[in-house]
Amino acid sequence: MTRIFSGVKPTGHLTLGNYLGAVRRWVEVDQHRADALFSIVDLHALTVEHDPARVRRLSRQAATLLLAAGLDPALCTVFVQSHVDEHTRLSYLLECTATDGELRRMIQYKEKSVRALASGESVRFSLLSYPVLMAADILAYRTDEVPVGEDQTQHVELTRDLAVRFNQRYGHTFSVPKAVRPPVAARVMDLQDPTSKMGKSHESAAGIVHLLDDADVVRKKIMRAVTDSGQEVEYDREGQPGVANLLEILAGCVAEDPAALAGAYTSYGALKRATAEAVIELLRPLRERHTVLASDPGHVDAVLKEGAERARGKARPVVDAAYRAAGLLPAG
Ligand code: AQP
After folding, report:
1. How far is ligand 1, taken at its centre, from the CA of residue 9, in Å?
2. Is 110 among the residues known to form the active site?
3. 320: how many CB neighbours lie within 10 A of its CB?
C-alpha cells in the first residue's frame, strides 16, 4: 500500500494556503487511498524565535483543526512530531549524509535567514539543518508520496537525494519519495502582496485568511485584496498576479479551472465578492467542527497519543535498520 507523510508547522494560525495547498487533499483524497501519516511538526517551529507557550497552544490548535477539517483517526495517523523520537534519531544520520553546500542552497533558508538578520535576530543553526529533519520525518516511514504545496518542493528534492545517497553508500534502506501537488492553488499568495506566498508567520495579517477567521473578517480581507491596474479579469499570473491569485483561490474552492472562471467576471469587485463567499462557505463546516472539538481537548490529546504510538511502531524498524546499515553497534 502507498505510504504518505506530510505535516504542518505550528508557527502561526493555519491559513487558507495551508488548507487549499495541502490539508484539503489529505482529507478528501490521501487518507482514503493510502497508509497516511499527518504530523504537527513542532520541532520545526523552534528554528526561529518562538514563545514556548504559543508553540504549545498552536500545536494543539493545529491538531484540532486537522481533525475539524476531516482527518479521521480511523483512516490515518495524526500525531505530534516531538512525541516520536525516531525523527531526531534519524536526523543525525542524515546530517552525516547531507552536505553543507546543499543545505545553504535551500531557498527557505536564504529567505528566512535574511529576515531574521534584518530584524536583529541571530540565525539558528537549526534553520540551516531543518530540511534534514524534514527528510528524516519522511524517510523514517519509508514514505512513497509527500503531498505538499509548491514551496516545499525543493525540500522533497533534497530528501530524495539523501535517500538515494544513503542507499548507495550503505545498502537499500529507504524508499525514494516523490512530492505530489494539488492541481490548483498549489501556491496561494498573500492578498496584500500577491508576489509572495500567503504564510502563517508573516507579520501583517491583512493579506492572510486564517482558517478560524470569522465570515466578516474573511470578507473584509478579500474585498481589500490588492488587484492590478488593468480593468479586465484575466488569468495571467505574471501580468495580473493579484487577480490570478483570486481566481486560483476561487477555483480551489469550487473545483474549477481559474482560466475558465475568468470569463465569468466583468469586474474586480464581482470577482472579489464571489471569492469571499466561496471561501466563507468552504470554511464554514470546518469552523463549526473546530468549535465542538476545541471544547473537548481530552479527545484531541487521546487521538495524538494513539497516533504517536502507531507512528513509533512504523518508524522504529526503519530507523533501527538505518543505524545498523551505517555501522552503529546494535544496543543488544
Ligand atoms: N500559501 C500556500 N499555498 C499553498 N500551499 C501552502 N502551504 C503552506 N503555505 C501555502 C502548504 O501547507 C503545508 C503545511 O505548511 P507548513 O506548516 O509546513 O509551513 P510552510 O510551508 O513553511 O508554510 P507557512 O504557512 O508559510 O509557514 P511559515 O510562515 O512559518 O513558513 C505544506 O504542504 C505547504 O506546502
Report:
1. 8
2. no
3. 15
Catalytic residue among 9, 110, 178, 197: 197
Tell me what pLDDT residue 41 has.
98
Render pLDDT for 226-239 as a digit per residue (tens, 0 to 9). Answer: 998 877 888 988 88
Locate the domains of the chain by residue range: 3-181+297-326, 215-292
Nearest to 306 by CA among 86, 53, 147, 73: 73
pLDDT, one tens digit per residue, over 9-48 is 999 999 999 999 899 999 999 999 999 999 999 999 999 8
Q: Are 66 and 38 in contact (CB under 8 A)?
A: yes
Residues lining ligand 1, CB < 6 A? 6, 8-9, 11-12, 15, 17-18, 21-22, 148-149, 151-152, 186-188, 197-201
- Longest CA span, the chain: 72
Q: Which of 4, 5, 9, 126 to mutate to test the pocket of ligand 1 (most atoms within 8 A of CB)?
A: 9
197 catalytically annotated: yes
Q: What superfamily in CATH does domain 215-292 come from?
A: Tyrosyl-Transfer RNA Synthetase (1.10.240.10)
Q: Which residues contact 246 (CB under 8 A, 6 or more apart)?
A: 222, 225, 227, 271, 272, 275
305 is known as an active-site residue? no
Minimum-distance ligand 1 atom for the alpha carbon of 18: 12
Mean pLDDT of all residues in 101-122: 91
**Would you state the pLDDT for residue 185?**
67
Q: pLDDT band for 204, please (50, 70, 90 cuts).
A: confident
For 3-181+297-326, CATH gives: 3.40.50.620
State pTM to two decimals.
0.94
Cα 129 versus chain centre, distance: 18
